[in-house]
Model the fold of this input.
Amino acid sequence: MSRFVSDKLNEISPYIPGEQPQDKKYIKLNTNENPYFTSERAVGAITKEDLLGLKRYSDPECTPLKKTIANYYGVGQNNVLITNGSDEALAFCFQAYGRCGACYADITYGFYDVFAHMYDCPAEHIPLEDDFTIDITKYFAKGKTVVIANPNAQTGIALDVGDIEKIVQHNADNIVIIDQAYVDFFGQNAIPLIKKYNNLVVVNTFSKSRSLAGARVGYIVADEHLIVDLNKVKYSFHPYNVNTISMLLAKNAMEDEDYFTQCVSKIIAAREEMSEELKKLGFTVLPSSANFVLARTDKMGGKQLYEKLKENGILVRHFSDRRIDDFVRITVGTDEETKILIKTIKNILESK
Ligand code: PMP
Done:
């Protein structure tokens, strides 16, 4: 880094995204993307006029998409804020509500620590139980911002929406952020709770269940007063935060419900199939409600399995956090990809 950089930036360990190799073709099961293409109907609905319209700045309010999301969930447009991926939504939340401190699980989405550092939020890590579940009572009356990924990142384990509601009730004087990046593979959405609780912020994305990771669109649903706070952050940072084409793609994708439900059910079925096959090979597989599974075998360390799979053209993710460093995280791919994965793992373990 240069000598001009601030001490804080100098100290920060930035988020390390999963590999996005451009050189070689891998079976890519490392960053929890959707294996299926973006809805063709959504892409086909983009017109030449939309493209020519790029001479203008994008609508800072993303009005068409905001309307679509509000209708979809039966909330008001003033309960919705559109962001550049849900990472930006989370960044806005940490900026608006993190100064009083933030708490989250010791094993969860790695970006929370980066945001906490970046935006001067004292962070508390609440250990998951031995079986990687969350004991909700550890999240009661925290007096600081509570952040929960549900289903949780890295483990895939989800809390029932009834438990989420209890956490929200027991934190009436502070904000609870529920990061729902993987919620559609679980099926219990916390968004309806925003009508009852004015301390709940729900963060969602188009990156996973709606196959739009590269378009970078996320959104926040919350009480209208919270949306005013978060808009203040947005308009102090980047008013035109979402580009016109991504906004239209997301709107069109949300209107293609048939394609969405088909993709999601295929992925849920493949997740169950992959978990069963891994168990047959002797793996311990955490019960996932997301589009990935965290799995380990006694026969080989997590890092070694990751490396062997990479040599065989399959990318999965390995994390060096102590509690999960003997696991690999595998994104659910197509049925064909799952078959190749299982066959390759079998070969690797047999040739050991
Ligand atoms: N939350 C969680 C739990 C995630 O795993 C991810 C994806 N890495 C995100 C948020 C951010 O996703 P995006 O910015 O693509 O919406």
Summary: The radius of gyration is 20 Å. The chain has a mean pLDDT of 97. DSSP finds twelve helices and twelve strands in the chain. Residues 85-87, 109, 149, 153, 179, 181, 205, 207, 213, 218 surround 4'-deoxy-4'-aminopyridoxal-5'-phosphate (CB under 6 Å).
